[in-house]
Structures are given as structure tokens and as C-alpha cells.
Amino acid sequence: MIYLLSIALHYVVIEAQTSRRSELLAREAQLKALKAQVNPHFLFNSLNSISALTAIDAARARAMCIRLADFLRISLRLGERGSIPFSEELELTRMYLEVEQVRFGGKLRLVEDVDPACANCEVPALLIQPLVENAVKHGIALLQEGGEITMQGRRDKDTMRFTIENPFDPDAPASRSGIGLENVRQRLEARFGNAARMEIHVEPRVYRVTLTLPARTIPWRQS
Amino acid sequence: VTAIIADDEELARRLLREYLEGQSGIEILAEAANGFDAVKAVSELKPDVLFLDVQMPRLDGFEVLELIGGEVAVVFVTAFDQYAMKAFDAAAVDYLLKPYSAERLHEALARVRRRLGEPRPAPAELRNAARVPGEYQARLVVKDGAKVHVIPASRLDYAEAQDDYVALRSEGKTWLKQQTIASLEAALDPGRFLRVHRSYLVNIEKIARVEPNTKDTWIAVLHDGSRVPVSRAGYAAFRKLISR
Questions:
Q1: How many secondary structure helices (H) and strands (E) does chain A include?
Q2: Nearest CA-CA partner of B194 in B182, B186, B203
Q3: Number of neighbours of residue A114 by Cβ within 10 angstroms
Q4: Measured between CA atoms, how close is A66 to chain B, in angstroms?
Q5: Do B9 and A51 touch (CB under 8 A)?
Q6: In chain A, which residues touch B (CB < 8 A)?
Q7: d(CA B237, CA B218)
Q8: CA distances (Å), A4 to each of A9, A13, B5, B235, in order?
Q9: Contacts with A105 from chain B: Cβ below 8 Å
Q10: Which among A44, A173, A176 has CB closest to B63?
Q11: Could you give the 3-state DSSP secondary structure of residue B145?
Q12: How do residues B148-167 score in pLDDT, each as one tens digit?
């Protein structure tokens, strides 16, 4: 009887493991799909800015075209890679923010304070991109006077910490988001397990996301 | 045709202005960079057409539409919004997807001209058509003269149907809004707001107790002492909700 029970239990355990594995595979596929997605709002609004600039300042229109093309090309390429040095991720967000600065004019201001020692830390590709998009879309874009996005990077021997902070309008209409943040959390967990975490602090008018992850370096390679 | 441009992005406003100035018979009365200014400009200047961006600070395009819907022809201008498309078809005279051509704007103007003076759909219904399934309004907007009041849904005590209006009761004040109670009910989270009576919608968190009234009716007593009628069906729905 006990023997039979233990066999039964054995099969139950195997069954559970199989279903967990397929669940993981499904999640991975979903993450891949999310990574490949370019925010259509960003794309179409940028094209509209370029359209406006052609009559006002043709040279700026051309510069914005090139910036946008660089951003799209690099995000498509990074989407195919698993992990990248943090410096590459940061460079991509700079391109993104430069395009958004043309769109929002003086409303969007940037402060970057990143420890150079963060540069070769390994991060999943496009990890912080959704955070930057959120800071613009749900923060700066909905503030009449605009505001400052602050990105801070710190590194000690074993950990790297990245913080992004933006002001927001607490009275703004509810946003349609949450997917972006959940995506970041899942990808951190999939890559680093319990060793990494994401914290969100909401003050009355300031929204702050902090990522803490193991400072693993990958050999720098030409991309 | 007189027009107002409402868009928070300066470049987007300049583009629209450039296109409009290339058309004959169009006068731009004002530009607005946020939803409040758009509502104010429309109320004061009474244009024939409002070019309205959907995503703006302070009030979004749908809130603006709710507040000024009957007064002006609206052409939505937006980058991309799969849910909003449905509402555009129902509500707006036309919509322009960024980036758009001068010719496309010309077509939209032709539609505006054809439809000047036509009756327009009730604005409050439009937001329901545009809502993402499973997401509900976190706040309500009400116009009082040229002023706009924003009531967070969490601070709404109850709503009472009054002909074509709903009376919104919040923190001791009453606001009248042109909307049916059924459409208000559809816009709010059904887990937090309960239709306790044909004419009443109540914020469940505000209910202190429900007491029997006549044989088949009850009264919901709210924390502030308000008394709201509860029908037999409303009572059944209330019991079902609290037993979950």
C-alpha cells in the first residue's frame, strides 16, 4: 500500500515538474514578444514631430530621423541578445530620451548620475527601457510644466543599484499600465532569482523605481 | 469655420496650425496645451470645431469631450489607441492619426462642414465605448459653468438618477452631470459601486448599515448619515456582494 502510494506520489511530482517547466517556457516566449515590441505611441508621435519640423527646421527634422532610426535599429538588435553591459542599455535610453526631448521641448529635462563602474555590469537587454518609457509617459507627459527625470547608478563590490525617479501628477487620470513594471520584475527574477529585486517608492508627487542586482561583469565585446 | 487646437505638444500644434493656415475659410481662435484650458477655451469662444489630442495633462481628451461634447464638433488627433478607435467612430466627426497629411486634414474639414448643426451623441456614453475592458474610471469630471470639478471615484458617496442627469453626492456636496445612471454604473468598478435601486448607485465602502424599511424595501444608511433607498433586487445584489 505504502509502495503504491509512493509510486503515485512520484508521478505527481514528475507531473508538477513538467508543468512548471512548460510554464517557464511559455513565460520566456512571452517576454521575448514583449521585448520585440516598440511602443507605437512613441513611434507615431515621433514621426509627427518630424513632420512638423520639416517646415520649421529641416536640419533638426533630419537629426531627429537619424536619432529615431538609431534607436529602432539598436533596440531591435538588443532584443535578440540575452544580456548586455549596462553601458549599452544606458546608451539606448539616452537615444530614446533625446528623441522624446525633441517632442516635449523644454518640458523634459534629464539628470544622469551614473557611476562609471556600472558600465560593464551585466543586465538583461532592454531591462530599464520600460522604466524610462513609463517615466516619460505617465510622469512628464501628464505634467503641464514637465519635469526632471533622474537616473542614478551605483556600484559596490557585489551589487549594482539603478534608480530612476520622476515627478508625476497625483490627480492625473488613471493610466493603462502595469505591464511594463511587471515585465521588468519578471525578467530580473528570471535572470538573477532572489539575488535581485525591484522596489517602487511613491511619494506624493515623486515616483521612484530602484533595481538592485548582483554586479556580474561580462567580458566586453565589440557589438 | 472657427477652430481651436488642443494638444500638449508644441510641435504638434504648430503642424496643425501650418496645415490649417493653408486652407481657406478657417480661423484659429485659440490653442490649448492641456485639458482644462481646452474646456475653458471652448466654453468661452464657442468654436465650430475642436481638434483634440487624446493624451494631455490635467484632463485627457475623453474627459474634455465629456465636458464640452454637445457644444462643438470634435476631430480627435492621436498617435495610436486601439480602444479609442471605437469611440472615435461613434463620437467624433472624424479622427486624424499622427502623422497625417494636409490632404487628410482637408477631408476632415470637409466632414466638419457637412455635419455642422447635426445633433451629436451623448458625450458620457463615449468613454464607455473607449474603455479598456476590465478597467474603470478612477475619477469623474463635472462642469459647473466654466469651472471643472474632478471627483475621485473613491470620494463619491452615491449617485441618484434625475431625468437626463445624475446627481453625484460627494463630501456633503451635490454635483449634477448630464449622464444616465446606467452609463455611470458601467463606467465604475462593479466591485466598489452597487446599483441598489433603479435610481441609485452606491459606493459600498460608504455604507454603514442596511436596515429594513417596508416589506420589500430597505434603506442603506451611509457613514455621513445619508439614507439611500434599496430595492428588493438591490438588496439581493448587496447580500451577494458582501458574502463574497
A1: 6, 7
A2: B203
A3: 16
A4: 17
A5: no
A6: 40-41, 43-45, 47-53, 55-56, 102-105, 141-144, 169, 171-174, 176
A7: 12
A8: 9, 14, 77, 53
A9: 9-11
A10: A173
A11: coil
A12: 899 999 999 999 999 889 99
How far is it, in rounded angstroms, from Cα A20 to Cα A1? 29
Of B8, B57, B98, the CB nearest to A169: B57
Terminal CA-CA length for chain B: 56
Separation CA B229–CA B232 (nearest Å) = 10
Choosing among B98, B105, B151, which should be mutated to test the A contact, i.e. which has the most A CBs within 10 A?
B98
Sequence letter at residue B31 = E
Please give the C-alpha separations between residue B237 and each of B154, B155, B231, in angstroms, as whole numbers: 20, 22, 10
- B136-150 b/e (C-beta count within 10 Å ≥ 16 → b): bbebbbbbeeeebee
Task: Please give the DSSP secondary-structure letter assigned to residue A155.
Answer: E
**What are the backbone dihedrals phi and psi of residue A6, each rounded to the nearest 5 degrees, phi first?**
-65, -35
Identify which of B111, B104, B99, B32 has the alpha carbon closest to the alpha carbon of residue B68. Answer: B32
pTM of the model: 0.81
Given a cut of 90, whether residue B84 has pLDDT beyond it is: no
Helix axes B82-91, B61-68, angle to 10 degrees: 20
Q: What is the pLDDT of residues B26-46, one digit of tens each?
A: 999 999 999 999 999 999 999
Shortest CB distance from A173 goes to which of B18, B34, B139? Answer: B139
Instruction: Flag if A174 and B135 touch (Cβ within 8 Å).
Output: yes
**CB pair distance less than 8 Å for A103 and B9:** yes
Tell which of A45, A65, A107, A171 to mutate to test the B interface (max B CBs under 10 Å): A45
Query: For residue A56, which residues of chain B lie inside 8 Å, CB to CB?
Result: 11, 14
**Residue ranges of chain A with pLDDT lower than 70?**
1-37, 173-178, 219-223
